[in-house]
Amino acid sequence: MIEFYRQIFWVHVAAVIASGSLFGMRGLLVQAGSRWGMATPLRYLSYGIDTVLLTAALMLVTILPGAMFANGWLAIKLLLLAAYVLLGTFALKRGPTSKVRARCFVGALVVFATMVGIARAHHPLGWLHLLYG
Question: Is residue 107 located within the same domain as residue 122?
Answer without folding.
Answer: yes
